[in-house]
Sequence to fold (308 residues):
Amino acid sequence: MGIVLKNISYQYKDQWQEEKQYAIRDISFSLEKGEYAALIGHSGSGKSTLLQHLNGLLRPMSGEYYFDGENVFDGKFSLQKLRQKVALCFQYPEYQLFEETVLKDIAFGPKNMGFDQQTCEEKARKAMELAGISPKLETASPFALSGGQKRRVALAGILAMEPEYLILDEPVAGLDGKGKENLFSLLKYLNEKENITILLVSHDMDDVAENARRVLVMDRGQLVMDDTTEKVFSREKELKDMGLAIPQSLQFYNRLTAGGYFRNSSGADIRDGAAAGETMQTKTRGKIPLTVEELAARILEEHQCFEK
Fold:
């Protein structure tokens, strides 16, 4: 059954004097096991407040939160269990590293949950393997690592708690191109091979388009869109009105379309699915390109039509 929020609302203390001013208001959605979704919205739209509800750091003023069918805030549900199952990774998690060795830092979560030292180390080593951290770094100081390595150690510390849901707030902030690529490859692996649900928060629409299959949009404390990535980014004007952009590849595609380049872009070419043996060009036919690769395939397809 996963995560289910029903009509969640929350006000911070300095907002109590403003009767109609909410940090988040009447939020309802569900997040199923195995999903890879993204949450977007301009600064101050309520994203961070919503995230803190998902692992119990904040308690709603009204509404209900169910995890696997159980009411999280009925007084009987263990918040420790929730925080183990629903892991929240804040921006720059490497700033929270503090132990003298990589292994000890990663093992801290399981230790805090009451596991013995041997079990903690076993869980830490498994998390290191998942995060692609060499066993040679077990005894290294986490502060001697590169920025990308520190980010992986911090993420491994979360994975050592064996979460089912991983919520990441700007996970690639501050990383270079290679570090960013590596981290998104890791998240893809965790989602597809380990069946960990991913909820990505990002201001980079290209990252969202390339990785998430579903997008939720926040505006002024309310959830205003919740659909597939393609359908959300097809609503360019509405997103622009909320101060949000669409992926750069789609911006370029829209300009080409407006200029009459895509003469073969009629709805008749749209396909619901890709049959066996279809190429990238036929898979993208009639669909809006959300990534550079999809845009290149769409342009190549059109060029071939011109030649015919």
Q: What stands out?
A: The beta strands are 3-10, 24-31, 36-40, 62-67, 70-71, 86-89, 165-169, 197-201, 214-219, 222-228. The chain has three domains: 1-12+21-91+170-175+197-231, 94-163, 245-260+289-303.
